[in-house]
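Example record for the data management plan.
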Amino acid sequence: MTGGGGGLEPVSARSRNLLALATAGILLVVSILMAIRSASLGYWEALGPGPGFFPLCLALMLGSLSLVWGLRQWRNGHVAAEPAGQAAKDDEQEQPNNIKQIAAIVGSLVVLALVLEVLGFQLSMLLFLIFHLRILGRRRWLLTIVLSVAGSFGLFILFTKVLSIFLPASSIPFLNNLGF
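Corresponding structural encoding:
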């Protein structure tokens, strides 16, 4: 606590870096334990993925991401710190904690749930991802289109063709006949 202001003292960059490194390490250990535990459940059965398939995939993703995050934090600890004004400016731009963005995210999830059965998974998810990447995230069009197509059509193909898990199709006959 500060003497006169009554607020909390700012956390140093070194303390944040050590906390992030520790968190990444803990997540890496959790992912390893998840992978070991899921090995006993069975990965694949005659009908498709077994009970250990998704936990193993999640454990591998969590482990990979925590490893990348930890390495990045470790590297940032050895690189000269950027000016404090620039870091504060970057933190302000990346914080999606204003009420309008939260309302937009919740509203878009509600709309997605409402149109999923009408438009089908592919078109609903395509529009959802475009909204989040381009409108809320302010990403470039090329990145938005690539990620939206991969996230909608790619996931649909993965789930229906590879994993034999059927996702909602469109209830509009014209769209259903087109394969949506």
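Summary line stored alongside the record: The CA atoms of residues 143 and 161 lie 25 Å apart.
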